[in-house]
Amino acid sequence: MTRSHVILIQACKFSLITEKYKERYPYPPFGLICLANILKMNGYDVTIIDLYLEPLSKREFVKKLTQSKRPLLIGISSYTDSILDAYKIAETAKEIYYDVPIIMGGPHVSFMFEEVMKDCYAVDFCCLGEGEPVLVELLEYLQYGVPNLKDIYGLVYRNSLGQCIANPKRGFIDSLDIMPFPWFSEKVQSIIREGEGFVFVSSRGCPGECIFCASRALSGPKYRCHSAEWLASLIYYYYKLLSFKMFGPLDDTFTANRIRLKKFLSYLKILEINIPWSCKSRVDVIDGELVEILYKSKCISVHIGVESGDDEVLKSIEKRITVEKVLKAITLLASKGIRAECSFIIGHPSDTLESIERTLILADKFR
């Protein structure tokens, strides 16, 4: 196989808010890391430029691009808040490598690909949804001319007339265990060693139906997750390599599959990994049994999305919880000394001044 180079870039909006967020959550770009691992398995060299953890001036960015091997493809991932920055990144990259195709993906692009293709002509392709199979097939096309562009599901491109063509969407990856372990740069490994802890993503998709969240629309309603065996192996490998003092899955619904959770924690016990950890959960799955499981496994904090202190608002956003259930869940966690970290949203379509005030009062009670 011809070995070729791919550059993957995480776009980031530069602002004071971003800087503060980055200080608290110095997380690597897991999406790009997954893509890079799959590309490496298929014989490609990959360079990741993470502008979130490593902000660069335009001059520094240009220098990094020009020092890199000439790529076969450049990929850029962006959220909505960084899409204008992503356009500038694409335009700068195209100035340096004018004949190298650029593909853009990420949550914003998956929903707004027509706008992206219209607003930024430096972007040659867009990726809809999960990018691993799309990138592999696109790279095969760029090298060998097969498969045809029209046969690469999940890909958006321009035809010979400059028209935007969106191929049918691709199905989701069902068996996540086919994915290799994520590999972190020396910079990220040093962050983990210095005490920030080990974080990872172990699932895709969300069974929730909250209307304000894009997780279900982006990753599907089916909760797809790595097996307990894969997950325990991941923790064990990096625990031996980096000796971290705590860990925390970033999944929004890590406790959704209780059978997997129990198996995973039992493996950690066998492996003698007895360190503090944290996770995210949902109010509607927190009960006495779950809290006992978390407590015995040294879970120190659980993040839950409360979103509002008003039952009518919660109903309107299809959160499927009530304020009473929220209070019960937090009381259960507190009874075992597990810290509840709650998130709220102000400005729901159904919010009123009164409902916002109730939300603020509830949030204040949890401080």
TrEMBL record:
The keyword Repeat does not apply. Coiled coil: none annotated. It comes from the Bacteria. Its cofactor is [4Fe-4S] cluster. Residues 193-367 form the Radical SAM core domain. Pfam families: B12-binding, Radical_SAM. The keyword Transferase applies. InterPro entries: BchE-like, Cobalamin-bd, Cobalamin-bd_sf, Elp3/MiaA/NifB-like_rSAM, Methyltransferase_Class_B, rSAM, rSAM_horseshoe, rSAM_sf. Keywords: Iron, Iron-sulfur, Metal-binding, Methyltransferase, S-adenosyl-L-methionine, Transferase. Residues 13-149 form the B12-binding domain. This is B12-binding domain-containing radical SAM protein.
